[in-house]
Design brief:
By secondary structure, the chain is mainly alpha-helical. It is about 70% helix and about 0% strand. It is flat and about 45 Å long.
């Protein structure tokens, strides 16, 4: 629902750019909630991917005016990404189960 309401104020590409942060957020949540170790290549790959998406949408990002409805769209997109990640964090495997 957050993404649907966010797209009233933001372009779909910008919403997808914010949602692309789900990989780093999932990684942080897995580490934070389940103390899972993360291979160094996972954050590096996520950073490269976000950089690429950021470069593609750079003209749209520089034109954002957070004082207008775009700020609400950004907040809703970030909230939607966090809620998605809370339900998507990979559970640890149980060796004794």
């Amino acid at each position: 629902m957050c993404f649907y309401f966010a797209e009233q104020d933001l372009a779909t590409g910008l919403v997808s750019l914010i949602f692309a942060m789900s990989l780093p957020v999932n990684t942080v949540f897995a580490r934070l909630f389940f103390r899972r170790t993360v291979a160094g290549r996972v954050p590096a790959g996520g950073a490269v991917g976000l950089l690429g998406i950021g470069i593609v949408f750079w003209p749209d990002l520089t034109g954002l005016d957070l004082a207008s409805g775009t700020g609400r769209g950004v907040v809703l997109s970030v909230l939607g990404t966090v809620v998605f990640c809370l339900g998507n964090v990979p559970l640890p495997t149980c060796a004794t189960c």
